[in-house]
Design a protein that fits this description.
By secondary structure, this protein is of the alpha/beta class. It is 29% helix and 22% strand.
Length: 355
């Protein structure tokens, strides 16, 4: 069996807010810093390009419309020269890059993570399955294909964003695909400080740590900071300055037993945190509890995962295959399962009514 040993880096830094090209410049600098320190993987925060739209949490949607066009124009579109620069940086520095971005596709935006291998080739382009709360005023949704784990030269790699780590079934879908290295991207923890505990660092770094223990995997959790320039742009009065403060960075890397693998940076400090990954340790963690293996009870509970891409337009030729279910958690043949459920439903429908 092949085990993977490598150094990983998680970014804790602010973007150049609402400036895609400048944010890519800064990202490439961080990629180069990580590679110089011996890292073979570097992970970026949620929507690092061109920054998280904190303005949606600060006032009414009508007030936030002033940022809409600029945010859209500075979101990243795949296949553009800007995207090519990031892929080239991965290749030039021979490092896997997991970039957090606001993806622009046609006339819509999506919270996305782009996994690029050390040769500059795309491993995956995933989208956050469900934007959280007011994020839905900006972003569209992903689909079941975005809950996937990929074979790479560094092991089986997967990724989720922010409060996707609070979705039990989505997490289980990832665990069941034998995820070894997980990138959990976060935007910053400096919103509504003292007023919304669930949005703070204690809860959300705990979510990353629990993911490591539950999944028996390494968790690399990049986390952005809010810069003073971002405060200047978005916080136009005292009320907004009270709701969003500078800093909030809590980048972390956790081992499969839940332990923190490095000294953290101060919450308002920019930089990288590093950890040395050894996937052979996963078997030790999972010897005690493998939630999608020996510690599961598929006869009691199991998960159905629909990985059908969410195409908005489906041709007649494709329609017959538009619904496809993958059974997760050691379930039997899907066709037999569906047939059994139909038979059981028919039996219930035909049974005499009881008063």
């Amino acid at each position: 069996m092949t085990h993977h040993q490598f150094r990983a880096a998680a970014v804790q830094a602010a973007p150049v807010f609402l400036d895609l090209d400048a944010s890519i410049d800064k990202a490439i600098g961080l990629i180069e810093d990580a590679a110089r320190a011996g890292a073979e993987l570097v992970a970026f925060p949620e929507t690092y390009l061109p920054g998280y739209p904190w303005y949606i949490w600060l006032d009414a949607p009508a007030w936030g419309f002033q940022f809409t066009q600029r945010y859209f124009d500075n979101s990243l579109e795949y296949g553009t020269p800007q995207a090519d620069r990031i892929a080239q940086a991965a290749k030039d520095n021979h490092i896997m890059v997991v970039m957090g971005l606001s993806e622009r596709y046609k006339a819509s935006l999506y919270i996305a993570q782009w996994i690029i291998d050390a040769e500059g080739k795309t491993v995956a382009m995933r989208r956050k399955l469900k934007p959280t709360h007011v994020e839905r005023t900006v972003y569209g949704e992903g689909d079941g294909s975005d809950l996937s784990v990929y074979d790479t030269d560094l092991g089986r790699v997967g990724a989720l964003c922010c409060w996707e780590h609070l979705q039990p079934l989505s997490k289980y879908a990832m665990y069941a695909q034998n995820e070894q290295v997980h990138v959990g991207a976060w935007p910053s923890f400096s919103l509504y400080t003292g007023a919304a505990y669930a949005l703070g660092p204690e809860v959300n770094t705990a979510a990353s740590r629990i993911y490591a223990v539950e999944g028996g995997c390494f968790v690399i959790s990049p986390c952005a900071t809010v810069s003073s320039e971002m405060i200047e742009i978005m916080c136009t009065d005292d009320a907004k300055r009270a709701m969003l403060t500078a800093g909030g960075g809590h980048a972390r890397i956790f081992a499969p037993d839940g332990q923190l693998m490095h000294e953290p940076l101060a919450h308002d400090e920019e930089g990288l945190v590093f950890a040395d990954i050894d996937t052979s340790l996963i078997s030790i963690a999972k010897a005690a509890a493998d939630p999608a293996g020996h510690y599961s009870r598929p006869d009691v509970t199991r998960l159905w995962l629909n990985k059908t891409p969410g195409d908005r337009v489906v041709s007649g030729a494709q329609q017959s295959t538009a619904t496809r279910y993958d059974v997760v958690a050691n379930a039997e043949d899907a066709t037999a399962e569906v047939r059994l459920e139909i038979v059981e439903q028919l039996a219930r429908d035909e049974a005499p009514a009881h008063v």
